[in-house]
Amino acid sequence: MEATKTVPKKSSLKTKIQKLGTSLSGMIMPNIAAVIAWGLVTAIFMAQGWFPNAQIAKMISPMLNYLIPLLIAYVGGRMVYEERGAVVGAVAAMGVIVGSSVPMFIGAMIMGPLGGWCIKKFDQLFQDKIKSGFEMIYNNFSSGILGMVLAIFGVFVVNPLVTAGSNFMSRGVDWIISIHMLPLANIFIEPAKILFLNNAIGNGILVPLGIQQASTAGKSVLFLLESNPGPGIGILIAFMIFGKGTAKASAPGAAIIQFFGGIHEIYFPYVLMKPALILAAIAGGVSGTFTFSLLNTGIKAAASPGSIIAILLMTPKGNYLQILTGVAVAAIVSFVVAAVILKADKSDGTDLAEKQAQMDQMKAESKGGVPSAEDAERSVQDYADVKKVIFACDAGMGSSAMGASLLRDKVKKAGIKDIPVTNIAISRLKDEQGLLVVTQDELADRALQKTPNAMHISVGNFLSSPKYDEVVINLKTVKQIAPADTQAKAAAKEAEKASDNVGSIDYTAVKEVDFIHHDQKIGSATMATSLFKDRLKKEGKKTPVKNLGIDELEDSKAHLVIVTPEAEKNLKLRYTEVQIVSVEDLLNSKDYDYIVEHLS
């Protein structure tokens, strides 16, 4: 089990790039639903749509120019400084939105975080200086005034710069498409996807540019550069036919999830397992984009997740054949290249780490799923504080959700009911107590930085890892051991209490041991009297033992009375001098040996 609480090392370049990409995509991903809504309204109700409707089509422009940019700015501000940052960021974004000739997505991605950062710094300077009773005035007016200033700044400074930049990039993209060089972008996109930068590239860069292009052309091929499922399905089909071991066995399920579910991350571990397959992904991506460009096709809005179903839903009328052709070409090319690589490979299809994990799992299963005493002790130490399991991926929506679902089902079947299993984006992780974070290997460094005090487990594939069974076994072991441990501690505490109880007796004054019966219920007291007499007799002790009613006692230190805790309360109300020992079980108490030893 690769679990750690080690403080993370300094960020690597890859981690820094991932963090930057996550910041960009983090503003877009939560708003993909709004982009899809705009795309559907446009595709269905515009003049050239499936069901033209001029009244409904009036929403298209406001959604594109106002709603989506404001949502992006709101989320960007919230990423920096919660709700205050979100509000100031949205107000600030109005400065770049109003009067712009292009959809101001990039401007919103600038002004949102800028607004959040400014109000955060403003609060750090002045919030502690506000007198009691003036907090609401400060909060409202500081946000309002700062938002106004930033909006004005956006109108006169940011808007012209972003408009010029957007026009430049738009013309650049159009020029690249016109000379049929756009497919070369996949040479960089496909390797970046494998390094889990897919959301950063797709949602952080291509989606804003694609929306801008689609707003004028009615469709954009940029939406397909990263979301095309063709390269991934081609590689997975190659594994289904030419793969070996567990990779071949798991490929069919992965193919269905990737192609129809749109979870592209599922095929990344297959490529990472055999890095030469990156050539297959690149070949498929380049050929697919080339086909889309050649056929002059694209889709209306972002297809997220990158499922063939989502892509077809976003496809303009009359473009279905072109879209399917591009996806098919990408799949065929990546399949052919991957097949050649896999057929030339002489390994058994399973890396050493996976073999070891499988072997450990089989060992546990051969023992009935129960770890050794040493493993159980380590499990208690490592897992005893776990209160929540979180799967974290770049976007917090796709592969992590499916991984969480798998483990949640295993946890439920194991009868563990008090440990929730959820998923979230890495950027939104919080360093909480009792947290177990599950991430993919490529994202482990970032997860450690966000939650250095949590327990961490990294897996190669969210959808197929033997570590899930280890987690369940360890959690179940903790649940089984913890109650026993609690009982042992309680017993030790009770023993200590009992020892104090019997140790405080003045045995030199004791002339008689009495068991008390009351309410005519003399059975237990009578039997206890007989058993205690036998103990004393075996030890050669002469102290008399009697079974008395509660009213038959003489209030004297010469009487040692053995009672249950319930009877003890009543006894203390009646007598002040008798010496009392309270035991849970009159017939067999561990205190009896001590008492017998000290009696005469």
From TrEMBL:
Top-rank taxon of the source lineage equals Bacteria
- Show the PROSITE patterns listed in the entry: PTS_EIIB_TYPE_2 (PS51099), PTS_EIIC_TYPE_2 (PS51104)
Q: Where is the PTS EIIC type-2 domain?
A: 20-354
The EC number(s) this enzyme carries: 2.7.1.197
Q: How does it sit in the membrane?
A: Multi-pass membrane protein
Keywords recorded for this protein, A-Z? Cell membrane, Membrane, Phosphoprotein, Phosphotransferase system, Sugar transport, Transferase, Transmembrane, Transmembrane helix, Transport
List residues traversing the bilayer.
28-51, 63-81, 87-119, 140-162, 221-242, 276-299, 320-342
Task: Tell whether Secreted is among the UniProt keywords.
Answer: no
From the Swiss-Prot or TrEMBL record, state where the protein is found.
Cell membrane
Mind telling me which SUPFAM superfamilies this protein's record contains?
A: PTS system IIB component-like
What catalytic activity does the UniProt entry give for this protein? D-mannitol(out) + N(pros)-phospho-L-histidyl-[protein] = D-mannitol 1-phosphate(in) + L-histidyl-[protein]
Q: Which GO terms describe its cellular component?
A: plasma membrane
GO molecular function terms here? Answer: protein-N(PI)-phosphohistidine-mannitol phosphotransferase system transmembrane transporter activity; protein-phosphocysteine-sugar phosphotransferase activity
**NCBIfam families noted in UniProt:** mtlA, PRK15083.1
Task of the protein: The phosphoenolpyruvate-dependent sugar phosphotransferase system (sugar PTS), a major carbohydrate active transport system, catalyzes the phosphorylation of incoming sugar substrates concomitantly with their translocation across the cell membrane. The enzyme II CmtAB PTS system is involved in D-mannitol transport.
* Annotated protein name in UniProt: PTS system mannitol-specific EIICB component
